[in-house]
Amino acid sequence: MFIQTESTPNPATLKFLPGQDVLGQGAADFPDIEAAAPSPLARAIFAVEGVTGVFLGADFITVTKAEGVDWAHVKPSILGAVLEHFQSGRPAIEGAAQDAHATQDGPDSVIVEQIKELLDTRVRPAVAQDGGDITFHGFDRGVVYLHMKGACAGCPSSTMTLKMGIENLLRHYIPEVTEVRPVAV
After folding, report:
1. Average pLDDT along the chain
2. Domain that holds residue 137
3. Which of 18, 73, 132, 173 keeps 20 to 30 A from 113, CA to CA?
4. Does 98 have pLDDT greater than 70?
């Protein structure tokens, strides 16, 4: 097995491509070791000193390192953990994965579905290329709240992506949208 790595726009994250499905579909964000309980793969990566976050995508893994930690020191151990996991045959996540988007019913449900559709077809595939994900968190009085995950969380260019990219896209297709804001979950 040959695992490729790619840099991301976020210097604190690195994207690992094992050359096979990680989740197959969907994504899972583990911002800390406690959240990684259902994932043998994420737990193995968190065992590497200096790892502060793990994000699993359809066919990639994004790892976030602590400030002051050099990739040259942690990358070999992460590669080893990923390789060992895939050789073991264990699943990346035990049990069912969570739905990516938050649910929201009520008078804005049609608008919310349009927002989710645009996120799924136009935004999420693009940010997955950079090792991240953006999911719907809520919609209130014209403001769309999005949760940034993986390489997108804490990325220096995330504000620009939200305001210049996603906000403009949503406002173009959905006139009821006036602003996009990030949320921390």
Report:
1. 89
2. 109-183
3. 132
4. no
Separation in Å, CA 51 to CA 22, 47, 95, 122: 19, 8, 24, 30
Co-location of 18 and 68 in the same domain: yes
109: which 2 tokens?
A: 């449900």
- The 10s digit of each residue's pLDDT in 103-113 is 777 778 899 99
The domain boundary residue, chosen from 55, 88, 121:
88
Chain centroid, CA 103 distance in Å: 18
Structure tokens, 143: 């403001």
Residues 6 or more apart whose CB falls under 8 angstroms from that of 102 comprise 135, 136, 137, 138
Residue 98 domain-assigned (yes or no)? no
Domain CATH code at residue 46:
3.30.1370.70
**Residue 94 belongs to some domain of the structure:** no
Q: How many CA atoms lie within 13 A of 176 on its CB side?
A: 13
What is the tally of structural domains in the chain? Answer: 2
- End-to-end CA distance of the chain, in Å? 35
